[in-house]
Amino acid sequence: MTRGYLNGIEESRSNLRALNPKPPKKYGRLKVTNGADVTRKDYEWIWPQMLAKGELHIFSGEGGVGKTQVMLNLAATITTGGRFPNMGAPCDTGTVLYISSEDDAEKTLMPRFDACGGYDESIDILDSQLIGGGKFVLSEVLDELSELVFDRGYKLIVVDPITVLLPEQFDNNSVTDVRRQLHPIMQWVNRMNIAMVGIAHLTKNSQNKIQHRTLGSGAWVHAPRIAWAAAEHDGELIFGKFKQNITKGKGVYKFTIEERLVDGMKEPRACTKWLEDSYISDQSINELLDMPVTARGDHGNRAIEMIQDKLRNGSFAKKQEVIAYVQGEVDISERQIERLAKDLNVQTKRLNDAHGSHLWSLPAPT
Fold this sequence. Notes:
By secondary structure, this protein is α/β, with parallel strands linked by helices.
């Protein structure tokens, strides 16, 4: 029997297995799927190398740089099948769900969306207050959101800002709290094969690297696969990726915020305008802001989260206690922890005790 014939049989088996995969085996509450029964899938892109289906994206920016305007511009592009910045071909047309707990739909969101030329029948605004007055907690309404997504077929969900739609007792600086909330959301986004962008805030402490400036725990940046940022650089507004686990390439987009008249409105509304011929293909937003990102892998990221967790809310802790706390969960050397602490701009204070101990603390966000 020839090798080619055998290969053909094996290929046929693989195709049949993909069409009729075995159901996962259950051992109590454990669900196990054999690797041979896992269907392989490529990433699907709404905006190539920027906005992916089935992924949670975090979009951080300083106050006043126009994060909401940028998102409304991207939403408008999707609803009209327009062209994203530096893209020659138009994107596929789709619907968008916008969840906002800060901006009024009638006076702010929809007028700005109209100013960007969006198709208003293809965007829905989800009230951040539940019927009956209960608090909207994103991770607790995913089943109801599933029904809405199946009904409307959204390509993108925007959560602006994502931190507000979390439980009342939620600690934004706690690694455990952030990951506990993000995990079901990321699983749901993947299962629904929909893109979600959660808007967050950057602190103004330019001494810190950009991946450490997203307000709250470092888990906000480390958990998602793609992270965007918007900031001011040399008097210009710039937008780009500062984390790209599943993408490649650099690229920074320059934009301005201009005002445009909207039909039926007496006053103009703000809208993002992408500047022509201003795409910088050979630099990243990290490089422009002089905030290089070091690829550390999961161990380094987890260690950073734990340092931040131990020193959250301006607390002080002995250096050796922090190191022991990190090493209790992460296989990492003391010297590596010290290097990560330096990246975080951890402050050191020597104690006048018999052991010459040192206290660590994080600078207060500004």
